[in-house]
Amino acid sequence: MDKAHMLIQEEIKALKLFLSLFYIIFFSYDIIYYFVYPAMNIDDRSIGFPKGGLGFGMHIFMFLLLPIGIYLVKKKNPYVVKYIIFIGYTLIDLLNNMMIYLDSNQKFASGNAVEQFLILFSPLFVNKRYFWLVSLGMIGKYALLGVVLHSSQVIIPIVLCVILAIISFILLTRFKSYVRTITKIFEGAQQAEKLAVVGKMATTIAHEIRNPLTALKGFTQLQREKHPEDAGYYNIMVQEIERMNTIVSELMVLGKPKKREYKLHNIKDILSYVIYIVEQPALQNGITISTMFDKTLPFIQCDEKQMKQVFLNIIKNAIESMPNGGNIIVEANSFHDNQVVVSVTDEGCGMDQEKIDKIGEAFYTTKENGTGLGLMVTYKIIEEHQGEVAIESKLGVGTKVNVMLPVVETK
Ligand code: ADP
Ligand code: MG
């Protein structure tokens, strides 16, 4: 069953309960108040509806709304029914009261228990807008009657409505907070499930990939000894092979974090290394990378390989967002000596909020050859370093990825 359908079913359930209670209370209250009660001669009121009003016309009108409601439910639009019932009731009741009490010397005595029901049961729909409409609408109705009919009698129902509205508000807020928590847990579980799949896949693939990688690394080292003049390139090749190895292992242990090697590092060195690696291929795509580093940056307690991974992922994304070239600015600033902020700004395609919310999910990618794992791994590593990632982006303008890392005091 799809989500929209499930929500509609839930609304229909609430609506059924709401409508049955509404009509039962509405009708039986009037019968008891205007017919049974006076018949018992408890006070000196005469049997029947007050003169001049709509009488049963009001009930007939309200019952006529029922087929409209059923039609809307059939049309898969159950959300408006509660509004129709409330607005219909308020208007017809207002009209009825005006007809009875305006230009008449009858004392204002009106209302139906269904009004209290409407307010008290408004949390049924877990919808704040509906709650506010009902509460304020009902209070407004009585205030209007009070003004038009010059009656202070309306104070009592207004006070009652306010008290009930406060109770409903508390209930509604509780419901909402509960639903939010459940949703969060559920989303977390979904994410965990995805991670479990990644972990399993990676474990299987890792064995297959690791052996050839080991061979590759061995031969590269051999070549490095043979060609000492190119040692610089070979060093990078070896390091990159090691990183491939790390990525695979990373995925394997995504579920259960392994012991990290936290040491003090200068973030400038890490960034320079990453930029050095990507600079050449970036230039070929018409992309220049410039840096703006604070003169003095405090050292960061971090796992070097992982940090390189983080900034490689982020800068690669920036490059990939600019297929037609552009500029990337990598900044590193220190704040109050207890935080280092690294920002990577690109002039690429940018993202809307909906996308920003999604990009940390496993396998979320918009690229043909993307894995959708880069940012997930990035978020996880930064989280393990007690840091934070914040993304600012504008569709068609560009993206700025900020990584905030805490500076641990060392004495
Ligand atoms: P991948 O790069 O394999 O697609 P990522 O997790 O690194 O996976 O990124 C997920 C998605 O986030 C990308 O497919 C892209 O749509 C979006 N994204 C990430 N960084 C940027 C950026 N700098 N500009 C625009 N979109 C981005
Ligand atoms: Mg990526």
Automatic annotation (TrEMBL):
Any one GO MF annotation of this record: ATP binding
Enzyme class: transferase
Protein origin, superkingdom: Bacteria
EC numbers, comma separated: 2.7.13.3
Pfam families: HATPase_c, HisKA, MASE12
Alphabetized CDD domains for the sequence: HisKA
Keywords carried by this UniProt record: ATP-binding, Kinase, Membrane, Nucleotide-binding, Phosphoprotein, Transferase, Transmembrane, Transmembrane helix, Two-component regulatory system
Keyword Transferase belongs to the record: yes
The reaction(s) this protein catalyses: ATP + protein L-histidine = ADP + protein N-phospho-L-histidine
Chain ranges of the Histidine kinase domain: 204-409
InterPro entries linked to this entry: HATPase_C_sf (IPR036890), HATPase_dom (IPR003594), His_kinase_dom (IPR005467), HisK_dim/P_dom (IPR003661), HisK_dim/P_sf (IPR036097), MASE12 (IPR048436), Sig_transdc_His_kin-like_C (IPR004358)
Transmembrane segments: 12-36, 56-73, 80-102, 131-149, 155-175
Listed PANTHER family: SENSOR HISTIDINE KINASE (PTHR43065), SPORULATION KINASE A (PTHR43065:SF34)
Name this protein carries in UniProt: histidine kinase
